[in-house]
Specification:
The chain is α/β, with parallel strands linked by helices and about 525 residues long. The chain has 25 helices and twelve strands. Among the domains are: about 1-65, no CATH class; about 225-290, no CATH class; about 375-535, no CATH class. A five-stranded mixed β-sheet has the order 8-9-10-11-12. It is found in: Nucleus.
């Protein structure tokens, strides 16, 4: 049995009730291929039936993440059969009490209980530290490509999927770069490049301009929807838009050229764009950095079709996954995930680009809606809650925010945050923009707030599902860490603790528990529990 992109954070032995399956000879073996970390510790140390698939050269790194076996398991102390009266004894005994005035002859049974409590306390601390943060390791597609390479079964198609998988993690801000693919010590890359004629596709390394959907939008629109450029030029203001046009003039691109589709731009302007963006004089004048604008990537070409960027493919897939089909025959109010998955899978087909291009158009719709929502957010603080008494920024949207005249056909009142990817990315971008907006303000009070905001995480609460008559709205809740610790998300454990405190009202339906579903009636109770947990 194989688990792909799931299973690593579950206690599979307990979840699948393996002890109740007629499996005396241990013939059932579970293979787990998942980038989500930390791995459930019982899965790591179950040597009989569970196999974790990881990159061969990262085995030692993965082992160091997990507490030692002796810290987690003990042939006597981790037996829970005799724990019924343990809590009563804890109230009367201090684990570390060495006070000479209370010296007494300790019975063998009492000594064993004391040692057991000490060991359990150390184990709980080790597990608490281990499970505190959720992060991501290398892409599952990359692991499969490495495995194929070791078996001499690798193809360029597999390499392309590995590149796409790595870009998924980067676009979700789970990894900083595509270093795992461009690693000069990765011999698989050179091996696959020697098979170009066999696979009839050409994969070329390049340093690409990282503007949003550049190959499918105008140069101007692409810049206006690129988060790094929005922050650098402060494009929420008229002054920022004027400065952007000045920047385009310095690049030597006429208005007629940068407002038409990038593919149709005159080649004489396109060939020098990258060189001009890297110009130190322009960087100093407009205060932008190129480390997030010019990125190492790969481009695929097959025959006479247009060159494909892995970033564009990821965006097309994600937009397709999170959009409910208007022609769906499903009676469920939620997205028909099976139907969406099948359609998203077809976006990977580089021979037939219809579904891929359809996903690109959906992504444009989502970006325009995101642009509208963040602009609305900056114009009014009514959706935001933050002050010195709250340990996080609370961003709440109701259905009215999604019913404006700017809403397009593909974005219904509750169809914008139907996938954790879209919700998390929006929340992170909103946090970045909010901090940049307040720090750039001439208002002294807002500038002071900016320093405070940089230390705070953000929690987004927004409509998730539509309502039938008499049904209550279901909301999606997303936790984003502060910008100082953006790669390490501890909201999984925080949300779980808050949910226990308010009576298990949340629904953890996603593998990443930093995103959950909640009925509207439980919203305030859950927020109060969060404030208590984060204030501890």
């Amino acid at each position: 049995m194989i688990f792909i992109n799931c299973g690593s954070t579950l206690d599979l032995y307990d979840f699948l009730s393996l002890d109740s399956i007629g499996n005396d000879d241990n013939s059932l073996t579970l293979f787990v291929l998942d980038s989500l970390r930390p791995i459930e510790h019982r899965n790591v140390y179950d040597a009989k039936q569970i196999r974790i698939l990881i990159l061969p050269n990262k085995t030692d790194v993965e082992k160091k993440r997990v507490p030692q076996y002796e810290e987690l398991f003990h042939e006597v102390y981790d037996d829970d059969n005799n724990d019924e009266n343990e809590s009563e004894n804890e109230e009367n005994d201090d684990d570390d009490d060495d006070d000479g005035s209370n010296m007494r002859i300790e019975s063998t049974e009492g000594r064993e209980k004391r040692l057991k409590r000490q060991w359990l306390k150390k184990r709980d601390k080790a597990l608490g530290n281990y499970y505190k943060y959720r992060s991501h390791s290398y892409s599952s597609a990359l692991v499969m490509f490495e495995l194929a390479y070791l078996l001499s079964k690798d193809t360029n198609e597999q390499l392309w999927y590995a590149i796409i998988g790595t870009h998924v993690l980067r676009l979700n801000h789970h990894q900083n770069t595509t270093r795992s693919i461009t690693d000069e010590n990765n011999p698989a890359l050179n091996t696959s490049n020697s098979k170009l004629s066999m696979d009839c596709i050409n994969i070329k390394f390049d340093e690409d301009i990282n503007f949003h959907l550049l190959r499918h939008w105008s140069f101007y629109d692409s810049i206006c929807h690129t988060q790094e450029m929005i922050l650098a030029f402060k494009l929420w203001s008229s002054r920022g838009l004027a400065q952007l046009k000045e920047f385009l003039a310095d690049l030597g691109i006429p208005k007629r050229e940068y407002e038409q589709n990038y593919r149709d731009m005159n080649i004489k302007y396109k060939v020098n764009i990258k060189k001009q963006i890297l110009d130190k004089r322009l960087q100093d004048k407009y205060h932008y950095t190129t480390n997030t604008i010019i990125l190492p990537t790969f481009l695929l070409s097959s025959g006479f079709t247009l060159k494909l960027s892995p970033q564009d493919i990821v965006l097309s897939i994600m937009a397709t996954l999170q959009t409910a089909s208007s022609s769906s025959t499903s009676t469920s109010m939620m997205i028909d995930l099976t139907e969406r998955f099948s359609l998203a899978l077809s976006c990977l087909n580089y021979h037939q680009l219809t579904d891929y291009l359809g996903g690109i158009e959906l992504e444009k719709v989502y970006m325009n809606k995101t642009h509208y929502l963040i602009e609305t957010l900056l114009q009014s603080d009514k959706n935001l809650s933050f002050d010195n008494t709250i340990p996080f920024i609370l961003l709440k949207f109701d259905q009215n925010m999604f019913n404006s005249s700017t809403t397009t056909d593909h974005t219904t009142s509750c169809g914008f945050f139907t996938h954790p990817y879209q919700a998390y990315l929006f929340a992170r971008n909103a946090l970045q923009t909010l901090i940049s907006y307040t720090s750039a303000s001439s208002n002294a009070v807002k500038k002071k707030k900016s320093k405070h905001l940089q230390r705070l995480p953000l929690i987004l609460i927004a409509p998730y599902s539509s309502m039938n008559s008499g049904e209550e709205l279901v909301e999606i809740v997303v936790g984003v860490p502060s910008l100082n610790s953006i790669m390490m998300n501890s909201f999984s454990t925080i949300f779980e603790a808050a949910d226990r405190r308010c009576g298990n009202v949340a629904k953890f339906v996603f593998f990443d528990h930093s995103v959950l579903l909640l009925q509207e009636q439980h919203q305030q109770k859950f927020v109060d529990a969060l404030m208590f947990v984060l204030a501890k």
